[in-house]
Amino acid sequence: MTIRFLATLAIVTAALAATAASVAHAQAGAPAPAPAQSPAQSPPPTQPSSPGPAQSPAPSGDTIYSPGQTRVAPPRVVREVKPGYTAEAVRNRIQGRVRLQGVVERDGTISSIAVVQSLDSQFGLDQSAVDALKQWRFQPGTLEDGTPVRVLVNVELTFALRSGPATQGWPAGFADAPTVAGAVEEAAEVQTPRLRLTMSRPAAWTRQTGVTNEWIGLRSADFTESISILRPDTAAMDLSGAEPDTRVARLVEGMRRVLTSSQVETIATGQVQASPDVVWVWSEFRLASASDVPGIPENSPIGARHGWLFARAVNGRVVLVQCSLLLPRDLDPAALPTRVQQAAADFAPIVKSISVEPMTN
Asked: Which of 163, 194, 210 is at the close of a domain?
């Protein structure tokens, strides 16, 4: 069965007693002794004073506030990042909730994240939740006068496995591949086993090299789209016809191991009979971070990655094709479907042009 996950993310509560009162108490020492009075003088009569309004101490940079106790407007989420399942957690069918605690800083970032209620520390789901929460952004909590302050919050992330049938056909956006005008032919060979790969690329795309185990690499003119075809590896499969959903799920799980990040969200999986003797098994995925992409620095404007993996068998070897779309951090969520659809239309004719054949001489 194809396995997907649904991450339900919600801030449950924000609770921590304000430290302002204790700070004020620590600063209030014993009253200074009254000056000595001469016997000829009588002290002036003490007049009762009317109580004035209580004054709140000015917030310090290290004070952590509680919205419920100090009348602080709570932080508001402005960007969520979903955590991803690890392959080991999928295999062990781990589901449930991770409860995290952290401090929303005055700049809207979150720090001091700790696991309050663990779900899975063995197979990586706890760490996946922490890594995702680090990328959240907030409108910070504020005092009544609008001053941003630090606020402690609790965040609960839910991991749930869902099963569904594998798609029979190409991924969304790949079925109607346009013809590439002015296509350039690319070819590469391997000697063990003796296989030859040919494919077509748009003239504006360039060939790239340098990735470990890469057979052919291509990238678009603006560097936001790329295709990497890995060198054939031994395959314990023979994709010569339609496979049952359970087998597709196992194949997809193996394919995902090329994605080094633990924050992988599987969007869809499937298989397609591209020709009488060629069957592709595929997976569409999303990564919350593009930090694992070679050459992308941590401070890059690239914020996430959307992509597709395709695998087929040739003479007992598997050929793996990875299509990647890099997404900017400031991309309007409403524009995401259109951008993904455009990338699918760019990748489709290239993927469909791939031919891998044994060399006879």
From this structure: 163
Any domain includes 56: no
For 195-216, write each residue's pLDDT tens digit: 999 999 999 999 987 667 889 9
Q: What's the distance, CA 4 to chain centroid?
A: 15
The amino acid occupying position 248 is: V
**Residues 238-251 pLDDT 10s:** 555 556 666 666 67
CA 83 centroid distance within chain: 6
Same domain membership, residue 132 and residue 88? yes
Reading phi first (left if > 0) and then psi (alpha if -120 to 50, else beta), residue 205 is in beta
- Alpha helices by DSSP H, 121-184: 125-134
State the CATH number of the domain containing residue 253.
3.40.1000.10
198 within some domain: yes
Is there a domain that residue 71 lies in? yes
- 174 with 304, same domain: the answer is yes
- The amino acid that residue 212 corresponds to is T
CA distances from 36 to 32, 255, 326 (A): 12, 87, 78
Phi-psi region at 210: left, alpha or beta (left = phi > 0; alpha = psi -120 to 50): left
pLDDT of res. 103 = 95
Report cis status (omega within 30 of 0) of the bond before 74: no
352: which 2 tokens? Answer: 């469909």
Residues 186 and 302 in one domain: yes
Amino acid letter, 69: Q
Cβ count within 10 A of residue 197: 20
Domain hosting 181: range is 165-358
CA distances (Å), 360 to each of 190, 193, 232, 234, 295, in order? 13, 11, 17, 20, 38
Report the number of distinct structural domains present in the chain.
Answer: 2
The pTM assigned to this predicted structure is 0.56
CA distances from 38 to 13, 34, 208 (A): 61, 12, 95
- Residue 46 falls inside a structural domain: no
3-state class (DSSP) for residue 26: helix
d(CA 343, CA 293): 17
For the stretch 93-148, pLDDT in tens is: 788 889 999 999 999 999 999 999 999 998 889 999 999 999 999 999 998 888 99
End-to-end CA distance of the chain: 41
